[in-house]
From TrEMBL:
It comes from the Eukaryota. It is found in: Membrane. Keywords: Leucine-rich repeat, Membrane, Repeat, Signal, Transmembrane, Transmembrane helix. The keyword Repeat applies. The lineage of its organism: Eukaryota, Viridiplantae, Streptophyta, Embryophyta, Tracheophyta. Pfam families: LRR_1 (PF00560), LRR_8 (PF13855), LRRNT_2 (PF08263), Pkinase (PF00069). SMART domains: S_TKc. This is Protein kinase domain-containing protein. GO terms for molecular function: ATP binding; protein kinase activity. It comes from Aquilegia coerulea (Rocky mountain columbine). The chain crosses the membrane at residues 263-282. InterPro entries: Kinase-like_dom_sf, Leu-rich_rpt, LRR_dom_sf, LRR_N_plant-typ, PRK1-6/SRF4-like, Prot_kinase_dom.
Length: 523
């Protein structure tokens, strides 16, 4: 796309590109004519600017911005002088807004102004401060994904959601909703994922029957009664911290003294078992383990509970790093393998919401040369976990230095070059992200994983920026480049991109001996 193409509406952009292509096939006179026609087209006022005042979708978004983010810079790009499809968080199909991803922008108030976006298929308002009553959503006939989690909404289950016949994912978790779940929710026959945990919903769930539901979490509510057969395939963590029973198993249910005593014994036995099993790689599970659950990012399909994670076998990878140790963990079904990093929580003393906001940002990183973060757990005591994709391979350090005996397999130079380029591309991607996490901070051969095909991926990226200041001072001397410590401290007191590039340079000279221009071109 040319430099000023974003100023054009899709129709004008199509015509402009068509005229450009015609210039390649015409005579000189015809080319001159087409050139002036193209110039005239570019000089004319853009149609989206002149008609934005009459575009109801643009006006709805501007009204939402005015009501919810009047002084914040989070929606600074929402200007009528700019093409709406270039605005932050806005995705278009044709001339209509189809997706709104406004997660974690500090928005407050209501989102009633957005209900006129009739072509919307995805609405993500997760992790804001929205607090007013849920507006009528019945205009969202095309909506497939609705995420209102981690806000301050209250009141009963929004009945207008029941009219969203195309809905696939619903997330109302971590709010203050109350009351029963309507029977008509079964009309949402396409629903695949529903998250209602950490609210005050109550009543029975015996009527729930959603045939296409693959993921469900209703934990930490006030539901009562029996778990229906239609939901029996979901793990126990789906229902914990409610007043539910299923086939004799009681979940936090108030009863007579005898039942309470049995429940007390059951909790002790279960907790002891989890401590023993989870102790294989998490030392001792704190009491807070059972008070919350893992938080996964929206894109992760194969989710599991903290209890499942702690009860699964694990093998420690490497000797552990400065900020924590990593474990290969095989989930109970045997076909899901993840890498779990147990962080040293003493090094991460910043407030929970600061940590979560930073990790949420890391979770949005998607690149072929970085290992993706699936989710995290922030416990009240000593347990702090990050769950990553598992890469079947070895660290670059082991490939270079781990086996020096007879039969040692050397890495050929084409593979070394591919690794070098991959690491450079991964760094480039990280540096291009938002300014608060725009450096790796811990680049070394043990934090580069090479898969069986010779493709590298970066791990342990972006964590140093959320360390406590005292921990950062100590650890930065251990693994950041000395020049980065000196120069960056002089500039702003923190280490950053310069350290990444200096370490990258030392590492490259130490084992690659590549031509300077090759790496400069990649970076």
């Amino acid at each position: 796309m040319d430099r000023f193409d974003y100023l054009l509406t899709p129709t004008r952009l199509l015509l402009t590109n068509r005229l450009k292509s015609l210039l390649c096939y015409q005579s000189n006179m015809e080319k001159l004519y087409l050139f002036f026609l193209l110039l005239l087209l570019l000089l004319l006022p853009t149609s989206h600017t002149s008609s934005s005042s009459s575009n109801p979708e643009v006006q709805a978004l501007i009204a939402f911005k005015s009501a919810n983010s009047p002084s914040s810079k989070s929606l600074e790009s929402w200007k009528e002088s700019m093409y709406v499809c270039t605005w932050r968080g806005v995705t278009c199909v044709g001339n209509h807004v189809s997706k709104l991803n406004l997660e974690g922008l500090g928005l407050s108030g209501s989102f009633e102004e957005l209900t006129s976006l009739k072509k919307l298929s995805v609405l993500n308002l997760k992790r804001n401060q929205l607090s007013e009553t849920i507006p009528d959503l019945s205009n969202f006939k095309e909506l497939k994904v609705l995420s209102l989690a981690h806000n301050k909404f209250s009141g009963e289950f929004p009945v207008s959601i029941l009219s969203l016949q195309k809905l696939l994912r619903l997330d109302l978790s971590y709010n203050n909703f109350s009351g029963p779940i309507p029977v008509k929710i079964n009309c949402l026959t396409l629903l695949r994922r529903m998250k209602l945990e950490r609210n005050h919903f109550s009543g029975s769930i015996s009527h729930l029957n959603l045939p296409n539901l693959k993921s469900l979490n209703i934990s930490s509510n006030r539901f009562i009664g029996e778990i229906p057969e239609s939901l029996s395939s979901f793990p126990e963590s789906t229902f914990h911290q409610n007043y539910l029973s299923s086939k004799g198993f009681i979940h936090s249910s108030p009863a007579n003294f005898s039942t309470k005593r049995n429940l007390f014994l059951l909790v002790i036995v279960t907790t002891f078992a989890i401590i023993i099993i989870g102790g294989v790689y998490f030392s001792r599970a704190p009491e807070s383990v059972m008070k919350d659950d893992l938080i996964f990012f929206e894109r992760v399909e194969r989710q599991f509970s903290l209890q499942e994670l702690l009860s699964s076998p694990a093998v420690k990878l490497g000797n552990g790093g400065c900020v924590g140790s990593t474990y290969k963990t095989v989930l109970s079904n045997g076909d899901n393998i993840v890498a779990v990093k147990k962080l040293n929580k003493n090094l991460f003393t910043k407030e929970q919401h600061v940590f979560e906001q930073h990790v949420e940002r890391l979770g949005s990183f998607q690149h072929d040369n970085i290992v993706s973060l699936q989710g995290y757990y922030y416990g009240e005591a000593k347990l702090l976990l990050l769950v990553y994709d598992y890469v079947d391979g070895d660290s670059l350090h082991w490939l270079l230095h781990g086996h020096r005996g007879p039969g040692r397999l050397l890495i050929d130079w084409p593979t070394r070059l591919r690794i070098a380029i991959g690491v450079a591309l991964g760094l480039k991607f990280i540096h291009a992200q938002s300014q608060n996490v725009n450096f790796h901070g811990n680049l070394k051969s043990t934090n580069i994983v090479v898969d069986r095909a010779g493709n590298p991926s970066l791990v342990d990226y972006g964590l140093i920026s959320i360390l406590a200041s005292t921990s950062m001072d100590t650890i930065s001397k251990e693994y950041l480049a000395p020049e980065a410590n000196a120069i960056q401290r002089f500039i702003d007191g923190r280490s950053g991109r310069y350290g990444d590039l200096t370490k990258w340079g030392y590492w490259r000279l130490g084992w690659l001996h590549l031509v300077e221009i090759e790496i400069a071109y990649v970076l």
